[in-house]
Amino acid sequence: MNNKTVFSKEEVQRIKKQWQDDDGAASVTDLIQMAGQALLQSPEIQQLRKEAEVCKAIELACEKLPLDCDIRIELERDAGTVVLFVDGDRVDFPSDHESMDMAIRDAIDAAMETKP
After folding, report:
1. Is the model's pTM score more than 0.70?
2. Is residue 93 within 8 Å of 107, Cβ to Cβ?
């Protein structure tokens, strides 16, 4: 991942137009807000947010997972699966989420239901 976010000419023009004052000039504050909003929507920032959510879910599992419960993440090319084990036995749990962080949270919930 490179350290630069590049905005297309059209995107810059669209954002400028959105933030222009009545006299056709945008204030410095408006331009800073515009740049910040555009940056938050960039693919790089979205990927970092996604990764942070997975990290938070893993930390939550370490805090809340009952004893004798394990969550394992099985990875292969282009895929990952969250697997729950209770007392050494694989346990199916409901999860209709495609994001890894939500699947981990579903596994935590299922583990807590089996071991209150």
Report:
1. no
2. yes
Identify which of 81, 77, 76 has the alpha carbon closest to the alpha carbon of residue 98: 81
Dihedral angle at the C-alpha atoms of 92, 72, 56, 115, nearest 10 degrees? 50
Q: 57 and 14 in contact (C-beta within 8 Å)?
A: no
Q: Enter the tokens of residue 47.
A: 């990927």
Structural tokens at position 14: 């669209």
Residues 22-45: tens digit of each pLDDT? 555 666 777 777 777 777 777 888
> Residue 71's CB: how many other CB atoms inside 10 A?
20
Is the Cβ–Cβ distance between 91 and 108 less than 8 Å? no
